Amino acid sequence: MRPFLLAAVIFVARLAAQPDPGAGSITGHVFNSLTSAPLRKATVTLTARQGPISLTANTDAEGKFAFTALPPGTYGLSASRDGFDPASRRTVVALGPDGHITDALLRLRPLSVITGHVVDENGEPVDRAQVLLFKLAYLDGRKRWDNRYRSTTNDTGEYRFPNLKRGRYILQAFDPRPPVDNRYGSTPTMFSVPAYYPNAVNQQQASPVDVRVGADVGGIDIHLSKLARPANVHIRGRVIGVPRDSRIVVSVALHPVDDGVFGCCGNTSANPPDYAFDLTAPPGQYTLSAKDYSAEDPEVYGTGALTVTGDMAGVVLAMTPTPEIRGRIFLAEGGGQVSVQGLRVALYDTFTHAHEAGCDAAGRFVFGKPFMPGNYNMKVLSVPDGFFIRETRLGGQEISPDDFEISASGPLEIVLSGMAATIGGSVHDADDQPFPNSKITLIALEGRSRPSRTYVDDDGNFRFTGLRPGKYSLFAWEEVDDDLWQDPEFRKKYEDRATEVTVGPRETQTAKLRVISADEMK
Q: Dihedrals φ, ψ of 204, to 5°?
């Protein structure tokens, strides 16, 4: 073939590979979901389900956007703007040949702000104070306060936390500067004490701040105070139970049981052969701990509670082997010929650090590293279709996978059942029209099943698989923060919108849900 003919064929082939430009268009508006005011300078993104089209446009002063010369197809529209939640709901539209959509509406949920001042015991502003923001969150149904942000006060003692989602928060402030010490050779006696809003010394006494959508919450002033630090006392003792003939150095530490009003008390080393230690700290309630100084995953550890009222001598801290966990996954009734080889068991500590172990053909697994004693939760990754975790035992005792304590070595036994149930269905709005791209949450009303969520597809349908047979409560949300829907107090407001479904072994139930709109949650 001649060169110019070959080039022409390649050019025609490239043209054929490109999507045909069309005469279709999509126009619409972006609004503030709280005030219904149009949003200018919002960025609107259009993506084609059929691919590979991806376009962006900016809204004008009236919140209007436009996409032109579009071929027919199904498109997703989403918007973003500073000060608004980028996770707001996506809109899906279908465009016919040379079609024109003129009423695509996108709503962005405004984010919130918390502001306030940090003042000292005299009501004077504290500049350069550090302020920590904690949000009430849930992990597999367990409540906790997550430290999300940090701010520093300005010269007027003011702090500001912008771009916050709806939820419940607590705040803590502290002055990072060292205490005043104007006498040579002396130990400072007055300390600026960290405080939770408004003036609490620990999280339990803190006053939570409830933040609604788009709220500007001001006047959250935190009052610091000074306390006289009691004189340090000595805690002397020794560590026992270190492996014989070992040359390891043991790290011994005191940890205050409360939030540590006067800061951490530090640690010291206990050296062979006698492993004696001498710690200093003010009187109080402590946890005394010891571990191998050089090992990230120590083979021995020691811990115990200690009440310090004055000088102490003869304290003995016994070290024991760090727990090792090995176990097996069993198949209960209905297991069939399903293989468990390659399944992975994951254990998470309170800091969400993961330990993982894989199963062999017989379902046996061994964690290669020892575990520091503490509370853990467990997940089996990639559970086979049609199965759920029916039972979990540690050391022969049944445990909840969501929260259990590891304090000694023992076998971890996991029983999988092949009797899993399925719940599917559809979501509709108040006019009984399909409502795609919303979120469905599922709460078990009996048993130990974890709270779960899934997303509605572009056709308004959803599906939960691998469920323990039983009774469940389902909610459909246009928009809901993951830190909120697991909170029982939050769900109480919408109990009348829940749908209860009871599903039996290997059964599939279908539910039709009506969405809880963002307007209903303002």
A: -60, -30
